[in-house]
Amino acid sequence: MTTLTAAELMNRQYRFQRHIYDATRTHYLFWRTRLIRDLSPPDGGRVVEIACGTGWNLIHAARMYPRAKFYGLDISREMLTTAQTKIAAAGFSPRVALAEADATDFDLMTLFGVANPDRIFISYALSMIPDWAAAIDGAARTLSPGGALHIVDFGPMHDMPPPARWALRRWLRHYNVTPRDDLKDAAADAARRHGLSMTFETTRKGYTAYAVLRKI
């Protein structure tokens, strides 16, 4: 049996899903809008989204912060096709650049001519990235002084009733999604390695986790 690469797997999964992705995810991908509100980049700031998908987050962020520049990378060419179309339709192509790249191994200078961005964010993507800790580490290492890395994803769901937790996780596996129960520990490790501060919180019952790593 041929083993698919990460890019091939994502392209296969989203070849058709990309057309309905935004309409079907709004109801259960919580705190995305909160993350965007929290970004608060400086005027002229550079904001990078890792695993940008359809561009939903980038469009909302570009609308909220008209003086910032945005960059999105994703391993799926299928998703980037949708993102490019939606960003152009929203009129943000002059301020939003996209590139195909792996979240665990990217060079922002090569991709976008940006060395150290002011903000990086990862929204509901670590739960689909095999080497997700490497994605956190790479992003944390890339921040500019005063920069921040914002991460939102499925949480450990520790306070859910066991049957509900089991059913939800089984449903997520159908979409190649695995909640990272040790996200807090991995983010804290990256913060220590790169001299960053960190805050971490979850929603009630642990459904969503939100981490912010800041470089002083």
Overview of this protein structure:
The mean pLDDT is 90. The chain has 9 helices and 7 strands, in the order H-H-H-E-H-E-H-E-H-E-H-E-H-H-E-E. The longest helix is centred in the middle third of the chain and has 13 residues, at 77-89. Helix 7 links the parallel strand 4 (119-123) and strand 5 (148-154). Helix 3 runs parallel beside helix 4 (56-64) and helix 7 packs parallel to helix 9. With 216 residues, it is of the alpha/beta class. The relative contact order is 0.14.
Largest sheet, spatial ordering of strands: 3-2-1-4-5-7-6
Q: End-to-end distance, in Å? A: 48 Å
* Portion of residues within helices: 40-55%
- C-alpha Rg, in Å? 16 Å
Class based on secondary structure composition and strand pairing: alpha/beta
Low-confidence stretches: none
Number of helices: 9
Estimate the strand proportion. Answer: 15-25%
Based on Cα principal axes, name the global outline. Answer: globular
Task: Please tell me the overall pLDDT.
Answer: 90
Strand-and-helix sequence, N→C?
HHHEHEHEHEHEHHEE
The total beta strand count reads 7
Report the major sheet. Answer: 7 strands, mixed
Compact description:
By secondary structure, this protein is α/β, with parallel strands linked by helices.
List keywords for this structure.
216 residues, alpha/beta, 7-stranded mixed sheet, 9 helices, 7 strands, 40% helix, globular
Q: What order do the helices and strands come in, and which of them pair?
A:
Blueprint: H1 6-17, H2 21-25, H3 32-39, E1 46-50, H4 56-64, E2 69-74, H5 77-89, E3 96-100, H6 108-112, E4 119-123, H7 132-142, E5 148-154, H8 162-173, H9 183-194, E6 196-202, E7 208-215
Parallel strand pairs: 1-2, 1-4, 2-3, 4-5
Antiparallel strand pairs: 5-7, 6-7
Helix pairs in contact: 3-4, 7-9
